[in-house]
């Protein structure tokens, strides 16, 4: 191969390695972006649950606006994560193991995103339920603390506080129920991940065995080719020896023929002179 051809091949190899590194870098960036988006969704979920727990008649309007803004932020993070997650499938690895690892990583990110979306929706539903219960509570005309004390209305105030506490307790119960359901879903998802990992290990073991058998076959073919090459070399050596012996025999015959021809010429010349 010429120097120019070697340079071209080296440049092509370097370009291929560069594209591979670029693809790995993009894959890592996309994966980190999706993970950060899931964290933002979880933060929005926690804020909505907090507002549901602290919901009170005097703060319901402000809490509603805050929850709607938080929900909008969470939904925006969901859309961004979905778009970036779709790009991961276009950046496959070069080896079987790398492709398998990326597939598992993409599956895990997708499951985390799905869980985050579900938790965000559940937290907003809990807030709406708490808001609905608060709206259904009987309302009384608020009075100044001095008037309450003067008119002996302290038990009514305590009743309102107790109703608010009951409302918060119900919201907390809903949240805890949702958390228990999430934990159960997480356990199920973890079991599925373990089964997927076991299947991946089995596939990797099978792939390794196939590669080992292929290497054994290649090694056997190489040994057979080596033996055939040795036999061919031996046959060529024998043929070369036979050819040299045949050449020597022909040379001797030619020399003998030349000697006989000279003798014959002398005999003819001698008889002609007589």
TrEMBL record:
A biological process from GO: vesicle fusion
Region (Disordered): 1-23
Domain of life of the source: Eukaryota
Sequence intervals crossing the membrane: 249-270
Species of the source: Cladocopium goreaui
GO cellular component: endomembrane system; SNARE complex
UniProt KW keywords: Membrane, Transmembrane, Transmembrane helix
Biased composition (Low complexity): 7-17
Protein's name in the database: Syntaxin-7
Domain T-SNARE coiled-coil homology: 177-239
Similarity annotation: Belongs to the syntaxin family.
GO molecular function, one term: SNAP receptor activity
InterPro entries: SNARE, Syntaxin, Syntaxin_N, T_SNARE_dom
